[in-house]
């Protein structure tokens, strides 16, 4: 066993005044030996070693044993952090408040999700119109004792008498679909199995469309899946008789195919994708028996979808020749792009539209902040919706005949509240506000703009307690994502609230690769421009340090999935930037990511090592796994992953942790925390989430030099 002695000085105050006479505390970390193998891959004549390839076999007893020994080592360390229990207690205490979703109407009932506080999974309740009495409709906490079976998507039949819902076991992306009678709450059919990356879309009350892959050979958690198929399930028939609708031929092969039926049951919309960006688009007239597919788009140069229809008039949302998106109309009989007519034109701000009560509600992102406009189906502006503050809204999805709708509003220091909207007048009123033991008036969020390496201005929102001293000694988490056209909009998080209670700063930059400024912003962080994302993140850290929010000794880098790649690339390129690195469920092997599950679908953002020598060399130059160097002192690192993550397979994290442990120089610990019966994150039980963040925050503060929580250190010095 290789031993590492970690020495940390006792910290008296949040300003970290260290006394020479203080006693040092040590924790011994016993790293398990990780064997190496002589695996070589050759790319364009260049050999690349992969000594930990054996860890990709998630079914092998050797990998299972490695996971157990790594967790034993990690928890031995975490158990010795003196304030870990206090963090868990505070997370549990703050988490323990009632949480509600925006309600929605199905048939004679109003449905809503509610969590009493510490329930592992939120429960679906319902009540009849004008009734104050609600009943439990579906409780996912009954699916399993430990909360590791979670509820996925839900979809009601057109008359709301039947519910089809999916469940995930252990956090896997593979799903099962169950069918329930909504009056009796009885399961009325055999469970559909082996379903993945799907919508559930009803045709009348007769059946529904869903998508899946053939079960792969080998491990279902890591084997490649790349031919998605759309099926129609008719109620009362076994799954083996489900009709294959699209995706069954080589010509129809795509990695992701989604199907949905328009609200009037007239059209089936098929959306095939070869990557996470860009799609083809087809429709099928369901009112005509045996009708053929009609092509709207036969290429993947845009993200385009049908948002609504009135008879044969289709309303499409598209970024084709409109990077910030627009809404167009076209007749279903001749729907190709040359016939499109602009209804709501593109603007300088990114459009994210919804339909509600027979209107379009168009959310525009202005520097990642929401602005909502209401339009009629003729494209006439009705009004701007007055929002309760500066932040982020979600909602606007009621059925065409409804007169009221609900939306939620939040920002980094405001817990999500629900507002009731009168669709005809545009007036909002507070419907529900959480009762939480967190005083939002004690905190502030400010947006700044900083300059990245190439001169690009990047927005960042910095949230913290009011009145903090900018002395370079505030514990700070720099959180980022930067990919897949995903926008990081302001939203409240209980875990972030606990961090800020301790005097911590949360900084969230809107990096290139995201969708905050449309398709051009996304493309500026993809393929041969991916380094822009890392440069943006590094520049954010430098801004925080230069402006005395924090310093390298008190800065932590955090991100998950594509954000885990961000952290891994940043810490290997700039190991001096931060004291702590927290890559979660990260894409860390950029030469092989596309060989696992549906990873090849990420090629729009990343490119692949096989496509060209230039792309291979570019990927290898930033791939975290391939850029860990001996003789370098990397930040204190806690890699986190789940053993059932079949989106970003845990082998990424396993191999990266092994490389770090073998090459780390200096006293900073390199640990991996592997959650069992957990996947990429969705559906994780509350109890597991609380434990994870107690460990993450405990590890972070301890490696910043704190031996008591910062709030207690302050109390001690004031006393």
UniProtKB/TrEMBL annotation:
Catalyzed chemical reaction(s): Hydrolysis of Pro-|-Xaa >> Ala-|-Xaa in oligopeptides
Signal peptide positions (record): none
Gene3D superfamilies registered for this protein in UniProt: alpha/beta hydrolase, Prolyl oligopeptidase, N-terminal domain
Xref: InterPro entries: AB_hydrolase_fold, Pept_S9_AS, Pept_S9A_N, Peptidase_S9_cat, Peptidase_S9A, Prolyl_oligopep/macrocyclase
Lineage: Bacteria, Pseudomonadati, Bacteroidota, Flavobacteriia, Flavobacteriales
Keyword Manganese: no
Source organism superkingdom: Bacteria
Enzyme class per UniProt: hydrolase
Species annotation: Flavivirga amylovorans
Domain (Peptidase S9 prolyl oligopeptidase catalytic) ranges: 490-705
EC number, as in UniProt: 3.4.21.26
Domain Peptidase S9A N-terminal span(s) in chain numbering: 32-431
Name assigned to this protein: prolyl oligopeptidase
Keywords: Hydrolase, Protease, Serine protease
